[in-house]
Write a structure and sequence with these properties.
The chain is α/β, with parallel strands linked by helices. It is built from 17 helices and 5 strands. Strand 3, helix 7 and strand 4 form a beta-alpha-beta unit.
Length: about 375
């Protein structure tokens, strides 16, 4: 990944390049932003630029020994930490046990989210974490001298998913960093990271990608017609992952849409038996998918509320979602919007706390009967 491969984000690129050229690289940075804005691609391009033996004024050279290794993400001074699942059968316990899959996945599709990664490693019902044992691995790696005499760079993707023990050991590393070591924390929810870690990092906030940049990329790289590209870019709302999902079949999003539509119809019709079956179906999906479904439901409720206010230009829905909204949105109004969003938020909190999923979703569906009638 080069800076030129990162979609948009010219201000962030300029800042990172300037840091390197002026010799004031922070030992720890946290790159924050919403899903799909290019945080990890930026971190990878930045790490390449730092390590490049013959960097230019705007990008790495691409041909030096360091860049050649970065092409396959096998540079000996580049280390990764990312959420994984423990697998007793294969004895996979740390990130290095997944490093081959990680490198291949990141190279092939640098714009991805946690759910895409979990599907890649077949996580099924397991929740992904950066486990406590990973802290020992990173301590071991950083205690060694740089293989090529430059910086040792650790990219931590989704540090908010670190186990408490791992987070505390990382804090000690940030307080007393090894010589010529750089930490790049790539986060989508920095509020979940220890405040003491945040206070020891320099923050770089990454905004949503400009719609023009998304549309141009869709035209140039994916052959999308100009009119269609701008329509997709608007729906994506600065999230390039959403733009990709709009042009590729996304089975999970279709599943979430079908489940959302089904629940709204069953709740309105007060079909209790079918609602119970719906809850059991969702409960069998696994915690990560359940969390993603609840986030999708919150998004759809917000979009339908705005659609109901006749502010179509402010909505970001696909054609199928908008078609359903044309009939459903009148049932999401000033009288029930806060109640519905509160119940979704409570359900999500309970799922994260490992409360029985059947109870959580059936309870929520029953409450929707009352809320939709308001």
């Amino acid at each position: 990944m080069f800076f030129r491969d990162v979609i948009g984000q010219d201000i962030a690129k300029k800042r990172l390049i300037q840091e390197v050229n002026e010799g004031r690289i922070p030992h720890a940075q946290i790159i924050c932003g919403a899903e799909g804005v290019g945080k990890l691609p930026l971190a990878l391009a930045y790490a390449r630029y730092i390590s490049c033996n013959n960097r230019g004024s705007e990008d790495a050279c691409g041909v030096c020994p360091s860049c050649v290794k970065f092409n396959k993400l096998v540079h000996p001074d580049l280390h990764f930490m990312f959420p994984i699942i423990k697998n007793a059968k294969t004895k996979k316990e740390v990130c290095d046990d997944y490093i081959a899959e990680w490198r291949r996945f990141v190279i092939n599709s640098p714009y991805f989210n946690l759910n895409h990664w979990l599907n890649e490693i077949q996580a099924e019902n397991s929740q992904a974490l950066i486990y406590a044992k990973e802290s020992d691995e990173i301590l071991r790696k950083l205690s060694l001298k740089s293989s090529e005499g430059g910086f040792k760079i650790s990219i931590i993707w989704l540090p908010e998913r670190m186990h408490q023990v791992c987070a505390n050991k990382l804090l000690k590393l940030l307080e007393e960093p090894p010589e010529k070591t750089i930490f790049l924390l790539v986060s989508e929810n920095s509020e979940m990271i220890l405040p003491t870690i945040l206070s020891r990092t320099q923050r770089l906030n990454i905004p949503k990608i400009d719609a023009e940049c998304i549309a141009n990329t869709l035209q140039q790289k994916y052959g999308i017609q100009e009119l269609d590209s701008y329509s997709i870019a608007h729906t994506a709302s600065g999230n390039f992952i959403k733009a990709l999902e709009a042009i590729h079949l996304d089975e999970e999003k279709q599943l979430f849409f079908d489940l959302f539509v089904s629940l709204m119809r069953l709740s309105y019709q007060r079909k209790i038996r079918e609602m119970k079956l719906w809850s059991e179906q969702v409960a069998a999906m696994g915690r990560e998918k359940q969390r993603n479904l609840l986030e999708y439901c919150q998004l759809m409720i917000r979009e339908n509320f705005i659609f109901n206010l006749k502010q179509k230009e402010l909505t970001y829905m696909t054609a199928n979602e908008e078609n359903f909204a044309s009939r459903f949105s009148p049932f999401v109004n000033e009288r029930n919007i806060i109640g519905i969003m509160n119940e979704l938020s409570i359900a999500q909190q309970h799922i994260e706390q490992n409360v029985n999923a059947k109870m959580v979703f059936f309870d929520f569906s029953l409450k929707m009967i009352v809320l939709l009638k308001q």
